Amino acid sequence: MPNPPIGLGYLASILRENGHEAYIIDCAILKQSYSQIISQIKQINPDVIGITALSSYYSEMRNLSFAVRKLGLPIILGGVHATALPELSLKEYRAEFVVVGEGELTILELINNWNDIESRKKVRGVAYVENGKVKINPRRELIQNLDEIPFPAWDLINPLKYPREPHGHWIKRFPIAPILTTRGCPYSCSYCASTNFWGNKFRRRSPKNVVDEIEYLVDKFGIREIHIWDDNFTLIKKHVVGVCREILQRNLDLSLSCPNGVRIDRLNREVLKIMKRAGFYSLTFAIESGAQSVLDKANKNINLRIIPKITKLAKRMGFFIPSFFVFGLPGETYGTARKTIQFAKSLPLDSAVFFMAKPLPGSKLFEELLEKKDPEKINYDWFHFYVTRNQLILSDGKRKLMLPKDAYREFFFRPKQIFRFIKLAFTLYKGRTLLDVIKRVVRLLCRF
Question: Which residues, in sequence order, are bridge partners of residue 327?
Fold first, then answer.
């Protein structure tokens, strides 16, 4: 499901604050043809076009850039894909510049110097082509004080125009809006591309700044539920507690969720207690594997033994707990995959998503892939989450697993789990009809 593009919202807001006009066309929700999108661009009549997308939308991004190129407009690329592959992106999309990494200050300096060809080539954090050769400037230093960045231009990415249920079927209140409260990650999981974009240094907004944005969303759009999109919202206890206290002090009546996953080993009774008081009802546990050997090879830096204790504690305190698991990481065997399925079934999880490991551009797994394969010959459309679930078959000689399909069936088609689904549906969808609840449960189970 598409969500408001917060990254573009930040870029638009910093450009506006410095005297530039900015517009956002979100192709993910428009469902328009390229000709219709081009027609909108013509009406706006911009000086330059910026394009961003995940690797899974590689083809769409390339086709759009070709269509824009016919208008004779210069193109700037950004985002995780372009950051990981600046040379290929410049070549494939025929763009003038790629913004590498965190983009607010880079895009501002680039646009401020747009009419000075030599000056814009000196901007830190960009890549461009000169005399047929790709030039990549040194990376810009990361923004240390995130409070200095203006809030996203929410009027351009109105959360009310997006699907009501952006992360699936388990939502408590409507309408919903996402926010980011931190950037960066000190860990180095081999399957993750986040650090290549945001860096390894963990940076956080002040609790006041975070809740100021939340309050703005409540007042401007009537938002009743906030989704924290951070990779590491629970990393620093002081940050979590500070945000929760600020929410409580302002008496904000909200429901809050962490759908992107939290570090389980950073949770304890004290943190969970104040999160519950502030309105948090759902915490997604990013467990990834039930085999310690696989987690160690992936640099997950977590001990499996702590997970059952915290999971049971969170459930006793009334949290809804979905979870993420990944099959096919280095070292995966039939035995380790079975451990993951059994581990998932042993925990009081409300839901689970079983992914297939993919070497996302910017991750260490992708770097290993590049040692064997030319980046121009990789099918980046394969990185989409919804591309063929049954991608991995593992066997011990007598038995076999078709993953992740078998994992879904084994986890969800248990009487206990089905009953839990029905109970949760009634809990989270208070005030809705019985038919609506049944439809939601059946729709989810039928996926598997």
Answer: 356
The residue to which tokens 């450009």 are assigned: 15
- As a whole number of angstroms, the distance between CA 267 and CA 257 comes to 15
| Cis peptide bond N-terminal to 152, omega within 30 | no
423 found inside a domain: no
Residue 223 has which token pair? 């938002």
Q: If residue 126 lies in a helix (H) or strand (E), which one and from where to where? A: strand 126-130
Give the position of tokens 């000056």: 119
Closest by Cα among 327, 88, 96, 98 to 197: 98
pTM as predicted: 0.93
Cis check for the bond before 74: say yes or no (omega within 30 of 0): no
Structure tokens at 247: 């929410």
C-alpha closest to that of 108 among 135, 143, 83: 143
Query: Could you give the 3-state DSSP secondary structure of residue 77?
Result: strand
Residue 306 belongs to what H/E stretch?
A: helix 306-316
Query: DSSP secondary-structure letter at 320?
Result: B
Quote the domain boundaries for residue 92: 6-136
Residues 166, 130 share a domain:
no
Which whole-number Å values give the CA distances from 389 to 228, 357, 386, in the listed order?
27, 11, 7
Same domain (yes/no): 176, 208:
yes
Q: What CATH number does residue 36 fall under?
A: 3.40.50.280
Tell me: do 215 and 288 sit in the same domain: yes
- Say how many residues make up the chain: 448
How far is it, in rounded angstroms, from Cα 196 to Cα 444?
Answer: 34
| Lookup: tokens for 181 | 């409260």
CA separation for the pair 12, 23 (Å, rounded):
7
The gap from C-alpha 175 to its chain's centroid, in whole angstroms, comes to: 19
pLDDT band at 389 (very low <50, low <70, confident <90, very high): very low
CA 176 from centroid of its chain's CA atoms: 16
* Residue 349 within a domain: yes
H-run or E-run covering 409: helix 405-412
pLDDT in tens, 260-297: 999 999 999 999 999 999 999 999 999 999 999 999 99
Q: How far apart, in Å, are the Cα atoms of 380 and each of 56, 162, 223, 277?
A: 6, 26, 35, 43
| CA distances to 226, 387, 444 from 208, in Å | 16, 41, 38
Count helices and strands (H / E) in the chain.
Answer: 19, 15
